[in-house]
């Protein structure tokens, strides 16, 4: 397994800024993750279409769109609750999320969409769309493919400053 820096970490497709991971290569299979900020769940199809139209390499992939998204309304709690002051360790405002909407798609790679969705849930991220593309290299990778999908997904979130 190796990481290859073939692209910039930030690209714009159809006026949307996508934060990209490096390309991860394992036994000739290639994986690359991308993420962007999402305004509403109804924007997902348009964003995916713009991504594929803006990058023909993605359209030619064996699994072009493995993705997950979450949207919600972020509400910050005030510093004081019920008239009680928080301790020094609790001085940062807390954020709650309500009206969460989420979804995922495997893109022909069974179970892969759920891997990305659980990644967003674990990091408590909302209003984000994460997409992983896989170019199959001819050799089955077994469960390692899920590690690679997660790895490039996390890297794209880091490149976007979301984790």
TrEMBL record:
An annotated GO BP: regulation of translational initiation
Chain spans, region Disordered: 80-107
Name by which UniProt lists this protein: ACL022Wp
PROSITE patterns noted in UniProt: UPF0029
Region forming the signal peptide: none
UniProt cross-references to InterPro entries, sorted A to Z: Impact, Impact_N, Impact_N_sf, Ribosomal_Su5_D2-typ_SF, UPF0029_Impact_CS
Family membership: Belongs to the IMPACT family.
UniProt GO cellular component terms: cytoplasm
The organism's taxonomic lineage, starting at the top: Eukaryota, Fungi, Dikarya, Ascomycota, Saccharomycotina
Biased composition (Basic residues): 83-97
Taxonomic source organism: Eremothecium gossypii (strain ATCC 10895 / CBS 109.51 / FGSC 9923 / NRRL Y-1056) (Yeast)
Impact N-terminal domain sequence ranges: 27-155
Pfam families noted in UniProt: Impact_N (PF01205)
């Amino acid at each position: 397994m190796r990481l290859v820096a073939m692209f910039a970490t930030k690209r714009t497709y159809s006026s949307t800024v996508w934060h990209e991971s490096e390309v991860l290569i394992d036994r000739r299979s290639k994986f690359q993750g991308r993420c962007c900020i999402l305004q509403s769940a109804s924007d997902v199809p348009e964003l995916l279409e713009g991504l594929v139209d803006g990058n023909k390499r993605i359209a030619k992939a064996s699994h072009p769109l493995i993705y997950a998204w979450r949207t919600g309304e972020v509400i910050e709690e005030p510093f004081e609750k019920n008239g009680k002051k928080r301790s020094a360790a609790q001085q940062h405002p807390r954020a709650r999320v309500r009206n969460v909407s989420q979804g995922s798609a495997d893109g022909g790679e069974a179970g892969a969409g759920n891997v990305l969705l659980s990644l967003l849930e674990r990091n408590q991220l909302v209003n984000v769309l994460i997409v992983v593309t896989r170019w199959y290299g001819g050799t089955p990778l077994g469960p390692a493919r899920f590690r690679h999908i997660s790895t490039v997904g996390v890297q794209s979130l880091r490149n976007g400053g979301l984790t």
